[in-house]
Amino acid sequence: MSNRTVSIDMMRRRLELPRAEHWVMRSQAEQRTYRIIVAQPLGEAPPSGYPVIYMLDGNCVFNTMVEALRLQCRRPEKTGVVPAVIVGIGYETESQFSPDRFYDYTPFPNTSILNKSDGSPLPEQGGAEAFLKFVEEEVKPQIESEFNIDRNRQALFGHSLGGLFTLYAMFSRPHAFQYYIAGSPSIHWNKEYLQELEQNFSARVKEEPHHIRLMLGAGELEKTHVAGNCAKACQLSERLAFLSDYGVHAEYKEFEGEGHVSVLPVLIARALRFALHPEH
């Protein structure tokens, strides 16, 4: 028998995430450009509409959250996760993180930190108010016009500076979302201002109770960082626990053996059960 080589033509195609799309939005007030990435579930939405999770740093872990959700939401009675629309708010870059996040996610500039860890100057800061207005008044109406959304089950997910922004959003506009997930929040960045917002928030919910659930999460290995944000996040959850009679539920979760970046996949898995449980 003669030997012969069989040649197989292989056509390679770019892999895309099913039932996902993205487009560019420019904020009306400041003319800043964002990439909006959306993934929707299979099948018809429930009568009340789909829950929705809005993710900051959409270029980074959008696919991770979408695939984790699709894997788990097939059996909600087993996993505790129902189908939802995922909205990533990112930037027009192929990088995972854009320097624009320093402006969008910080309420005020941090005057005690002038350079990044590599020694380069920090980008512009202090645009959180304008960014939150963009999310509330432009992004959310656009999403709600195109997808069947349950406005009583909206979540905001942010990590690091995005976690700082998540806390800022909850304190300044508690009605905007019902679920807030702040991963490894950079509380040290605007600590004094955040404390002032927290006090105002506490007084506000005592007068006008809100249904708010906050999950603070961090990696165990972050405890050694000089910023002390693990302790700050834990202490925040303990203070907010006194508002449980006014509709505020806060919890802190520390993930064993995880650091500032490696915590993201496990944080996402926990966040899905936190925001998308069938009984909530």
Automatic annotation (TrEMBL):
The keyword Transmembrane helix does not apply. The keyword Hydrolase applies. It holds the Pfam family Esterase. GO terms for molecular function: hydrolase activity. InterPro entries: AB_hydrolase_fold, Esterase-like, Siderophore_Hydrolase_D. Keywords: Hydrolase. It comes from the Bacteria. PANTHER family: SIDEROPHORE TRIACETYLFUSARININE C ESTERASE (PTHR40841), SIDEROPHORE-DEGRADING ESTERASE (EUROFUNG) (PTHR40841:SF2). Belongs to the esterase D family. This is Alpha/beta hydrolase. It comes from Paenibacillus arenosi.
